[in-house]
Specification:
Its EC number is 2.7.7.23, 2.3.1.157. This protein has a 23-stranded parallel beta sheet that branches. With about 450 residues, it is α/β, with parallel strands linked by helices. The protein is built from ten helices and 37 strands. The chain binds uridine-diphosphate-N-acetylglucosamine and magnesium ion. The site of magnesium ion has 4 residues, from loops.
């Protein structure tokens, strides 16, 4: 096997996106397009990966840091000029260079490998990954001679009527003999409608020099999708979503309505988990087996163990144990750790809280900056008063404590093991273990009051 290098083109602004965000950073299923591309390139096993950055260089670089080398294209003069920026790094190396655009997020490692294999089999100097497109508008067209071999690629804006009718398009992914690539790039000019140095022109130059050019057509034209505007972005999103959802279903996850279920590429979900419609599972989320998630729930960067049920709720950056019941309408905010067999019910907000095994907050509570032991019952309306206007303070509620309804626990405060708090209490002093604390005005009944005020009329 020859040495393999890869160049990812990611320097463009993406004018047609009409966005402040640089094109290749637009997310598809929660991940920047260029990151999808890089991950697939890495999977295709390359010795060296170089990403060409320009617009938003620092941001793009920070997203890909540690996984790619970078070269700067200070001025965006076209795709050939972009590849030229990698010349110093690659020109003297023996082997093949794969060039991929950062705006083709659906391309797979498998297809890249097939392209490379075809390139090697054909002993070509350049091999183009092509695709059949029913509506090829915007793409470069693959022009073949009478012998069926590729002679050149013509950009949409430079194409004549016959060329425009061609439905075989350039996906923007190529495999080149490394040295031939850098020698030929020197010869590319910018004499075209856009005044740019086009990478596809390398093909015609090599062909005219008598070199072998090959083409490999993608088995799925979905992979060819190049995202230049937001219409294509939404198409990429729905194709990627379909791909992810089908993979999850094949792995044993039931999606009641895949069309309204949004799962990030990196999410891992165990078998026999059922995901109901309107659910968004984002980031690096891991969900166990036999869970029920949704409907209408949002889970981000969280870890959920087995047999847990989460309905109409939001969970962010938290860990949830097994056999937990959350919702409907609960909000688990970052840095919470909910242990096994917990119940978090309607309209309960939990923030930065350790919530022990089997404990319950079944209704209408705010529990923030707290350590809740196991077997604790937090009655309806329990509130941790965690913020004094300047600092956040810790509330500790030890094992088996019982907090009556509508209690305020003014932090910092500790409720001891097995202690009881009477409903309606405002607690600002520690409660010893096993004590009953009542901190509310004593009730006084004024007998006959109604008659007295009525006689005044
Ligand atoms: C390009 C191809 C076209 C192909 C299509 C596939 C050229 C001239 N055209 O067109 O044949 O059908 O991709 O999607 O190559 N970039 C740079 N520096 C530059 C210009 C572009 O890094 O100076 C990067 C962009 O960030 C982008 C990629 O190269 O990721 C492709 O550029 P883009 O402007 O999207 O080219 P297309 O018009 O889509
Ligand atoms: Mg493009």
């Amino acid at each position: 096997m020859s040495n393999r290098y890869a160049v990812i083109l990611a320097a463009g602004q993406g004018t047609r996106m009409k966005s402040k965000l640089y094109k290749v950073l637009h997310p598809v299923c929660g991940k920047p397009m260029v990151e999808h591309v890089l991950e697939q390139v890495k999977e295709a096993d390359m010795q060296e990966v170089i990403t060409v950055v320009g617009h938003g260089a620092e941001l793009v670089q920070s997203k890909l840091e540690g996984r790619s080398e970078f070269v700067l294209q200070a001025e965006q003069l076209g795709t050939a000029h972009a590849v030229m920026q990698a010349k110093d790094r690659l020109q003297n190396k023996d082997g093949i260079t794969l060039v991929v655009c950062g705006d083709t997020p659906l391309i797979t490692a498998e297809t890249m490998s097939s392209l490379i294999q075809h390139h090697e089999e054909q002993q070509a100097k350049a091999t183009i990954l092509t695709a059949h497109e029913e509506n090829p508008a915007g793409y470069g067209r693959i022009i073949r001679g009478e012998d069926g071999l590729v002679t050149k690629i013509v950009e949409h804006k430079d194409a004549n009527e016959t060329e425009l009718a061609v439905q075989e398009v350039n996906t923007g992914t190529y495999c080149f003999d490394n040295q031939a690539l850098f020698e030929t790039l020197e010869k590319v000019d910018n004499d075209n409608v856009q005044g740019e140095y086009y990478l596809p022109d390398v093909i015609e130059i090599l062909k005219n020099a008598g070199e072998a050019i090959a083409a490999y057509q993608t088995p799925s034209s979905d992979e060819a999708l190049g995202v230049n505007d937001r219409v294509a972005l939404s198409k990429a999103e729905s194709l990627m979503r379909k791909r992810i959802n089908e993979q999850q279903m094949r792995n044993g996850v039931t999606l009641i309505d895949p069309a309204s279920t949004y799962i990030s590429v990196d999410a891992v979900i165990g078998s026999d988990t059922v995901v109901y419609p309107g659910t968004v599972i984002e980031g690096q989320t891991v969900i166990g087996e036999e869970c029920t998630i949704g409907p209408n729930s949002e889970i981000k960067d969280s870890k959920i163990a087995d047999r847990t049920v989460i309905k109409q709720s939001v969970v962010h950056d938290s860990e949830i144990g097994s056999d937990v019941n959350i919702g409907p309408f609960a909000h688990i905010r970052p840095q919470s750790a909910i242990e096994d067999e917990v119940k978090i019910g309607n309209f309960v907000e939990i923030k930065k809280t350790q919530f022990g095994k089997g404990s319950k907050a079944s209704h209408l509570s705010y529990i923030g900056d707290a350590e809740v032991g196991s077997g604790v019952n937090l009655g309806c309306g329990s509130i941790t008063v965690n913020y004094d206007g300047q600092k956040k303070h810790l509330t500790k509620i030890e094992d088996d404590a019982f907090v009556g309804c509508n209690s305020n626990l003014i932090a910092p405060v500790t409720v001891g093991k097995g202690a009881y708090i009477a409903a309606g209490s405002t607690i600002n002093k520690d409660v010893p273990a096993a004590a009953l604390s009542i901190a509310r005005a004593r009730q006084e009944n004024k007998e006959g009051y109604a008659q007295r005020i009525n006689t005044k009329k």
